[in-house]
């Protein structure tokens, strides 16, 4: 069993990002990223702080717009409109989830597609489906980079993705389909999850439920990617895969933490640089 070390790979990507940004700065371009975070969800604020720190490390100028939980949708749309027009901002990121009274689709659609570094705008989602160059959502893109770094070729593999959200499972499905894998995607209404997971050469799980995937659900020699992040009552951070019992069966597996999480942030840096280059 080999560990897919997202932490180590993300450090290499960050070092390259730092060099790329130096080159951009020499041409008078400082990449700028604006992050909108609404309400006081503590996980959202933790993720935003991590993104801010990563930007600082590589030389991306970042502004964090914190808005109260009861902010009106019009005010959010107005703020995004200003960011769209600001020539110093290359990327705009709306930290999800948004409060219940806000229409998430409307807000994501308000972001200029050229500044959509999260790849959540319907225009960019469509381009991803068509396998055209676009901004790809950071978490699935990070998984693809991790596979590539370990020379894991998705072509022809039987893949099972558990979790079908717009930000994780669905873009992951499109990327793997575009890479010529056969993709099976499961969710809360899947009748017999084990029948699907057990067949997979490559099993990717992004649900948000600790220990959802146990050893009896995994094929011998499978590659397992754990996207889930769960905080246990004792404070420990774990994924969706019962790591201790599943890992001995795998050819490759991502740890949590230190697997997909750091890759997500590294991809945000890459997408921000890509946006700045097209300024
Ligand atoms: P979500 O709640 O939007 O979607 C969860 C998906 O899992 C849905 O498709 C749902 O149908 C499915 N699901 C729920 N319970 C299930 C079950 N018992 N069996 C099978 N499918 C089930 O969540 P999300 O935003 O996609 O995030 C999923 C997980 O990934 C969370 O733990 C989140 O913290 C994590 N995440 C990690 C990163 C990272 O960088 N590592 C990034 C984004 C999300």
Task: Reconstruct the topology from this structure.
Layout lengths: L1 E2 L2 H21 L5 E7 L3 H17 L2 E7 L5 H13 L5 E4 L9 H7 L11 H8 L8 H12 L8 E5 L6 H10 L3 E5 L6 H5 L4 E4 L17 E4 L3 E2 L5 E2 L4 H4 L5 E2 L6 H18 L2
Parallel strand pairs: 1-11, 2-3, 2-4, 5-6, 5-7, 7-8, 8-11
Antiparallel strand pairs: 9-10
Bound molecules: nicotinamide-adenine-dinucleotide (NAD).
The site of nicotinamide-adenine-dinucleotide has 25 residues, from helix 10.
What does this structure look like?
- It is a single chain.
- It contains ten helices and eleven strands.
- A hairpin with a 5-residue loop joins strand 9 and strand 10.
- The mean pLDDT is 97.
- It is globular.
- Strands 1-11-8-7-5-6 form a six-stranded parallel sheet. It has a three-stranded parallel sheet with strand order 3-2-4, with helices on both faces. It has a two-stranded antiparallel ribbon with strand order 9-10.
- The chain has 279 residues and is α/β, with parallel strands linked by helices.
- It folds into two domains: 28-114, Leucine Dehydrogenase, chain A, domain 1 (Rossmann fold, 3-Layer(aba) Sandwich), CATH 3.40.50.10860; 138-261, NAD(P)-binding Rossmann-like Domain (Rossmann fold, 3-Layer(aba) Sandwich), CATH 3.40.50.
- Helix 2 (42-58) packs across helix 10 (260-277).
- It has helices spanning 6-26, 42-58, 73-85, 104-110, 122-129, 138-149, 169-178, 193-197, 243-246, 260-277, and strands at residues 2-3, 32-38, 61-67, 91-94, 158-162, 182-186, 202-205, 223-226, 230-231, 237-238, 252-253.
- The protein binds nicotinamide-adenine-dinucleotide.
- Residues 139, 162-165, 167-169, 186-188, 190, 193, 206-209, 212, 227-230, 260-261, 264 line the site of nicotinamide-adenine-dinucleotide.
- Nicotinamide-adenine-dinucleotide (NAD) binds next to helix 10.
